[in-house]
Amino acid sequence: MQQSVGSSVNNIRHSAARRGALVLQLKKGVDNAPALGEELGKVLGTAATASALLHTSTIEIKDLGECATKEEVTAALDALLGVPVSKLDPVKSLRKAYAGTQVAVVALPDDLAATALKLGHVRISWVNGRIRAREEAARFYHCWGPGHMAARCKGPDRTELCYRCGLKGHQAKDCKGQLSSLRTADD
C-alpha cells in the first residue's frame, strides 16, 4: 500500500476549503487516481473518507426536443463517446428554451468534454442537439464574488440567500421571484 500510493504522490497539503482535510497531489501522468482513492478508502475504513477529484468541464447541448429526459441525454452521450458516463451522473440540469426546445447542462471530465466538443452534435431521440462549451465564472459560495476563495474573502455572508432573487428562506431552484441585481452588483 505505502509503495503503490507513496510512489504516486507529489506532495501533501491541507485543504483551504475543508478544515482537517488533507489533499494528496499526485505526480503528472498518474493514470490510476480513482484506484488509489479506492485503495485508500479501504485502508482508512470509517476513520476517514478518500475520493479522487476529476477536473471537469461544462458543456451545453442545445435544441433538444421538449420530451427529452436526463436519462436519454446520458444514454446518447454513452453511445457518442463510447465510454459509460452514466455512473458520473453527468446531466446537471435540463431547462426549457425557446420554441419548445430544451438545453441540457452536462459536466464531463476534461478529455471527454473535449471529444464531445470536437464532434459538435449528438443525436437524442429524433433531434440532433448542438454541443457547445459553457463558460461559467466560478463564484465563492459565501459572498458570491468571483475569483477568490475563503481565505481572502472580505465580502458579506450571503449563504442563506436565494441566488436568483436575493431573499432569505428558499433556494434558487424553488424561487418564484424576479431576478435580483444583487447577483451582479459586485461584478
TrEMBL record:
SUPFAM superfamilies named among the record's database cross-references:
Retrovirus zinc finger-like domains
Any GO MF annotation of the entry: nucleic acid binding
The record ties this protein, via PROSITE patterns, to:
ZF_CCHC
Question: What are the CCHC-type domain coordinates in residue numbering?
Answer: 162-176
Tell me the InterPro entries matching this sequence. Znf_CCHC, Znf_CCHC_sf
Keywords (A to Z) from UniProt: Metal-binding, Zinc, Zinc-finger
Query: Which SMART domains does the UniProt entry name for this protein?
Result: ZnF_C2HC
What's the domain of life for this entry?
Eukaryota
Q: What is this protein called?
A: CCHC-type domain-containing protein
